[in-house]
Specification:
The structure is a single chain. A five-stranded antiparallel sheet has the order 1-2-3-4-5, with no helix packed on it. The relative contact order is 0.08. The chain is an alpha+beta fold and 114 residues long. It has a domain at 32-106: Protein of unknown function DUF2782 (S-adenosyl-L-methionine-dependent methyltransferases, Single Sheet). It has one helix at 2-24, and strands at residues 49-55, 58-65, 68-75, 83-87, 94-97. The protein contains one helix and five strands. A hairpin with a 7-residue loop joins strand 3 and strand 4 (83-87).
Length: 114
C-alpha cells in the first residue's frame, strides 16, 4: 500500500508541474487562413470527361482524363450487352472487358529496341 501511495503522489506532482509549465507559456491565436481565389483551378480532375458518339449503329462513350483517352464503352444497338475497351499501355494497345471478372493485364516491358 505504501508503494502505491508514493506512485500516486509522484503522478500528482508531475501533473501539477506540467500544468505550471503550460500556464507560463504565452499562447497566441493563429492567423486566419485565406480561402483560395475563386478562379483557382487545380490540376486534379475529379471526374472524367465523357463524349458520346454514334459509330454506325453502335453508341460509343469515350472517357478522358486531362484530354487522354483511357476507356471506351461500346453499346451495340441490337440490345446486346455493352463492353468496355480499356487502354492497356502507352503504345495504344486496348483490352476488351466484358463483365464482372477483371481483365487480364499482361506485363509489357521493353527490354531491347532496335
Amino acid at each position: 500500500m505504501r508503494k502505491q501511495n508514493k506512485i500516486k503522489v509522484f503522478c500528482l506532482a508531475i501533473s501539477f508541474l506540467s500544468l505550471n509549465v503550460m500556464a507560463e507559456k504565452k499562447l497566441e491565436p493563429l492567423e486566419d487562413i485565406k480561402p483560395p481565389p475563386k478562379n483557382f483551378e487545380s490540376d486534379v480532375v475529379d471526374e472524367p470527361q465523357i463524349t458520346i458518339t454514334k459509330k454506325g449503329a453502335d453508341t460509343v462513350e469515350e472517357y478522358r482524363i486531362n484530354g487522354e483517352l483511357y476507356m471506351m464503352k461500346v453499346s451495340p444497338s441490337g440490345g446486346g450487352p455493352s463492353y468496355y475497351l480499356l487502354k492497356e499501355d502507352q503504345d495504344g494497345g486496348w483490352a476488351r472487358y466484358d463483365g464482372p471478372s477483371q481483365p487480364l493485364s499482361v506485363p509489357k516491358w521493353v527490354i531491347f529496341r532496335f
